[in-house]
Amino acid sequence: MFEENKIVMRDVTNAGLVVSHQIGREMASQLDLEESLEASRYASFLYTYSTHPRELPPLAQVVGSWNLPHQLVEIKIQCSSWRAWASIDSSLFLWRFDGHCLQEYKGEATVCAVGLVKPKPSVFYESIEYVLVLATPDELILVGVSCSDGRDDPCAETSLHQLPKYTVPSDGVTMTCVACTDEGRIFMAGRDGHIYELNYSKLWRRCWKVCVSGGGLGGVISRWVVPAYVFKFGAVDPIVEMVFDNERHILYARTQAMKIQVYDADGGFKKVAEENNLIKINRTTTTKSSIVCIAPLSTMESKSLHLVAVLSDGSRIYFTTSPGNLGDFSKNHPRPSCLRVVTTRPSPAEKVYAGVYYSAGTLLLSDSSTRPSLVIVSRDSSTQSAVGPGILGTSTSSCSRELRESISSLPVEGEILSVADKLHQPNTATTLESLCYGGGDLSVQHVLPRKQVVVFSTNGVMEIVLNRPVDILRRLLASNSPRSVLQNFFNRYGAGEAAAMCLVLAARIVHPEVVISNVVAQNAAEAFEDQRLVRMGEDVEEGEPEFSASHDGLCLCSARLLLPLWELPVVVEKGGSIMCRLSFEAMQVLQHKIRSLENFLRSRRKQRRGIYSRVAGLGDLSGSILYRDDSEYNGSLSNKRQRLPYSPAKLTAMEVRAMECIRQLLLRSSEALVLLQLLSQHDLITRMAKDFDANLQKALVQMTFQQFVCSEEGDHLATRLASSLMEYYTDQAREQVEKVSTILREGCPSYYKESDRKFFLAMGCLDRAVFTSDAEEMEKLAREAFNSLSKVLESADLQAVCKWFERLRFYEAVVHLPLQKSQALDPEGDAFNNRIDAAIREDAVAQRVQCYEIIISALRSLKGAHSWREFGSSSRPVLDQVRNRYICEIVQLGIRFPDRLFHEYLCRAMIDLGLENELFECGGPDLVPLLQRVAGEPKLQATSSATLVPSKQAKYSEVLASYYALKGKHLLAARALQRLVERSSTDSEDVPTLDQRCQYLTKEILQAKNASNSDDLVQLLEGKLGVLRFQIKIKAELEALVSRVEALPGSSESEQSGTNPNIARGKAKELSLYLKSLTELLYDYAVPFELWEICLEMLYYASNSSTNAEYSDNIRESWTRVIDHALSRGGVAEACSVLKRLGSYIHHGGNGAGLPLDTLCPRLEKAALERLESGVESIGDEDVAMALIAAACKVETEPALLSTYDKLIFSTSAILQSPNLKLRLLRSSLVILRKWAMSVFAHQMSSKAYGASLILDAANRYMSEVRRLDLPQRQTEDVYRGFQEITETQVTVI
């Protein structure tokens, strides 16, 4: 046998389906009064009314009688549910129903009308429970009533208090009756036919009356003291009775002429309708009659019928204030718009009654014919049973649509003066009514007490109770009636319904005002299990098996208990707050009843009584009637094969299992109500819901009680609420933690488990540790909490718990608890298994990372705490050394824990937080392979490569290089930096910029220089650095080109230059993603986009490591393109400027290839002559020569340059035979000779003569060449004289 308190969710869920089915039948059987009246409209009189069987106990019985106070004998008496009163002249007597506590109020004028009202809040003192409304011919008076022994206790002593400021003149209007509302409004009817409202407040205007029914001028002026009757013309029809519908806020008034008026009192006050000639409508009797009583109908009786009028012959007329379809109940209390007769009900007898009283479906008629008696007409409950087919069983239903009423009578001595309901205290009544959900006595007899009526007659007071079916059964069981009588009772109400009533008595879940003796409880239990009364289950050949009436009665009783909240949300939102649908008191009552029923079933199971005794030895009682397998069900109903019939023993075992499922459902519901009571007691749901995410808040508001009890989502939510509850008490009310924990552990163990208890005990230790000043005691409590939490990791919110340990600086728990939980969440190590499905592995990693993040959060707090204080210290901030000690403690604890994934996660996190130094210090001996894995080195991480690295790993590789450098391993540091330099990706965001690569490469060169025997490596790296700088320049040129093209309107420049900006942009992006070789940069980027200057630079750079012949042709061609491009762009001046700039770069590198002077000189001189002759550009004689001298910029440049000019001047080429061009060349040669002469003069004496002789020889030859030019002397004279001056100067030097 399973443990009694164990709950199997599968059993609870399937039992919930059974209960839901029964609740559906229960709701379907609860017909509206209008439907029942319509169905019985054509029924015979014998079926409409019936007499109560003589063999059964009576429906009504007198439970007490008292004499009237002697002062009030033969005086007209009025009463309410709380007190009775009578007036004699100017005196008012108020007393309890039993004749005690007589109070007398002595006034100055005759009392005409009296009312009793529960006043509006905050108007009078709290001690004033009620207010008496006294109407005299002269004034209207309010009198306070207070209870001395208890609030709202009908048996309490009362006292009357004068309220002198709450008196207002009647203005000559005599009031006939008073009607009061539950909201404290007071309405009075005057003999002038008007209705007045008596207003009261605690402001300066304490009390005043307003005529609310008078229209036009009379109604307006009556507000200003002038009596309304002054403006009343015609015959006056005074109002003799007023009743108020507190649910719909409608006031009904009956006049002396038997008119019925309807007023809408929802907020304001407005007359809606008036109906007369009502007697003509009622043709159900020939007896002359009149309307003597009107009463509103509650929404539990009918949603479409609103008022009943009772005639003196006992017949009834039913009204509605809605003009639409009566079957449409979609609107919640629509406002009245008319008064319409819907149907009538015939009188139970053809006679006129002396008095009539109607309340909640019960009609009391005072018969004073031969022998005075009180005729009681109430609904026959035997026609209301809702037992019907369950999931696997059927039962005959005795529910009838027609309204059938039972008639009984009680003898009464004397004339009946007044009748009143005796109600319970208002708070109690509200609690009980919230647990009722429509229906007749059968549906609510387990909740409500018996209906009690107080009858005042001339001979005294009688208290009468109206017995319900369960009360009749109780009296039968208490009197040991013959079995035949009990059998008749079961037959009358149906076996299932009678079995449900037996359960109500056996489990003692009726209202406490009915005392259930042990004899009655025992007899009820035996009747519930008596096979002769509750037919046995039977197998049906072509359907599902039928269980016994005991099972049906249990389903019915359980359904009625759970009906008030089963399919409704557990909580409701009101004014921004979330609260339980039922009040704390209502849930307490319901939980007690459900637990009592479950305890009864548990005791019968434990004792092996009844049906449990018939399955002894058949095995386990757990399971569900809905669990089907091939051995028990040979196929389902959908196929055509016939299943094997069940044996009686098998059928009984199935029924026991079904009842066990319902017992578990009751136990689960009881536990849920215990939890909700605790949450409701201190209004904690709103506070806890703020900590939930949006989805959980939505689930909480929308979840029904059925889902809360029967679903996995409800179980999760309830467990979360229980944990939040304990967290609240741990934080806010520590002294009650153990008490609340005990209530949860005993009241709802399926929601609050032993692990939860240990968790919150540990939290209690942490709470005490925080507030202790003893460091040794603090550590002891923290370790105790740590040891306890290590055993209940599944129920601990480690994110919150570890904050407590952080506050205590107990970092052992901060590290170990999350790591232990990560192992508990992934016991198979799926996070490390590359052979399983990737989604499973990623899910395991994600669960572990959530735990790891708790530890990283602690590191983050320490890193960001610049002036935090040591716990338990005085006022000194913690020093950086102490903080670093805590960080190192966390790192060391984490590194020692055997979790490779966490080691990598910790390493990455510390690098991200800038804690590299602490990592280097405390990382331990395995730090190098750890950093290598984090950095993604190919030897240690198969998923990464040397040239394709995730973005964050760049930082990790940099840290690895720093660690290598710190340890003196410079070559390893250089290799780590090399991976960063060569890092590439298809995404520009995942790679370093070219400038960053340049920085990495610079650092790499530095590390290589610090290493030994690394000259070749340094040379190689420096070459790469040069190439990388060319790549940066080309990328910048391409981006500038794109910007220039896009800045111009249209595409003229791109068309003229043949450059597509999109292609250039793409090439620039390529350069930013990947490193290129010098050849690639030259032929794939510089040449296609005509970047000739950069081409020259790269060619000269390449020539430094090769022979000049290899690149001479390319250099010569590139110079030609550079000069041509400069000439086309800015003329000779631009060409000279480019020549100077490039020349300085070319010769800066050392022994590379020189300038192709034989190409540059004639090209520049010829272009200068052409542009000068055409007048396009003004060019000086010295411009070209000086540019060439500046570009060459080497020692002894002039002889080499002069040699080039010498060849040009004395060349036999036809191109160079032009006199003007030769003159241009001679002028440039003159500039070079002068420059050479100045250089020679600055040298030492030993070399002057040799240099001067060379210059003298050249000058003589050029002088002769000038004379041979076929040009006028005036053009050549200045050149000739220049050479002559040089000759004379050099002769002097020699």
UniProtKB/TrEMBL annotation:
InterPro entries: Nucleoporin_Nup133/Nup155_C, Nucleoporin_Nup133/Nup155_N, Nucleoporin_Nup155, Nucleoporin_Nup155_C_1, Nucleoporin_Nup155_C_2, Nucleoporin_Nup155_C_3. Belongs to the non-repetitive/WGA-negative nucleoporin family. Pfam families: Nucleoporin_C, Nucleoporin_N. The keyword Transport applies. Keywords: Nucleus, Transport. This is Nuclear pore complex protein Nup155. It is found in: Nucleus. One of its GO terms (cellular component) is nuclear pore inner ring. GO terms for molecular function: structural constituent of nuclear pore. GO terms for biological process: protein import into nucleus; protein localization to nuclear inner membrane; RNA export from nucleus; transcription-dependent tethering of RNA polymerase II gene DNA at nuclear periphery. Residues 548-1267 form the Nucleoporin Nup133/Nup155-like C-terminal domain.
